[in-house]
Amino acid sequence: MIVLPGGGYAAHAAHEAEPVARWLGEIGVSASVFRYPLNVRHPAPLDALRAEIARRRAAGAQRIGLIGFSAGGHLAGLAALAPGAPGQTVQFAVLGYAITSMETETYRPARLILLGEDASARLRRSTSLDALVTPASPPFFIWHTAEDPYVPPEHTYRLAAALAASGVPHAVHVFAHGPHGLGLAQDAGDPAIWTTLASAWIHEQAAPPG
Q: For the chain, which terminal residue's Cβ has fewer other Cβ atoms within 10 angstroms, N or C?
């Protein structure tokens, strides 16, 4: 799996990087962090991630998953959903409190970095994950908190509704309490179980089809 930390496309949140890769290693899933370009316009981060996916595919990886948080979740979703070359596809994605829509006014700073102040409606739509879902999209595991003040759960609801409408396998967990940026959410109350829920799901997706 490729770990994509959040940070609003302006930074890489340390607690959403190597600690997440270590957790994945502890549950038997090979993982490493990819630090995508910051403070650049679309599609630079997506192009960089696709090159990394292609590199790992060329090195022999058969099933590749992405796990991203906040802005890193947006990037993970773009890579999983936007049309790309065969060697750049992934088999599944895990998104934590992800920015999924560039059409809302919530978490505007990340949108301004990625798309600019005068982004067209078409560009905003084409970088919104719910607009990219098709019946051929890979499975998603999505989690959020209902109290998130920076990226409201509307982002998760939008994507989940699109996945459901297209019949794409998905798991969605919205916890009643908790701030933005929880990462592994250790000692954070109910959201702390997201890693347990995700572990079984990830193993199911990572297993070779049989």
A: C
b/e string for 163-195 if b means 16 or more Cβ within 10 A? beeeebebbbbbbeebebbbbbbeebeebeebb
Please say whether the beta carbons of 96 and 70 come within 8 A: yes
DSSP 8-class letter at 52: H
- Kindly report, residue by residue over 22-73, the tens digit of the pLDDT: 999 999 999 999 999 999 999 999 999 999 999 999 999 999 999 999 999 9
Give SS3 for 104. coil
Cα distance between residue 85 and residue 87, in whole Å: 6
CA-based end-to-end distance of the chain: 20
Beta bridge partners of 170: 140
The pLDDT tens digits for 168-205 are 999 999 999 999 999 999 999 999 999 999 999 999 99
Chain CA centroid to CA 65, Å? 10
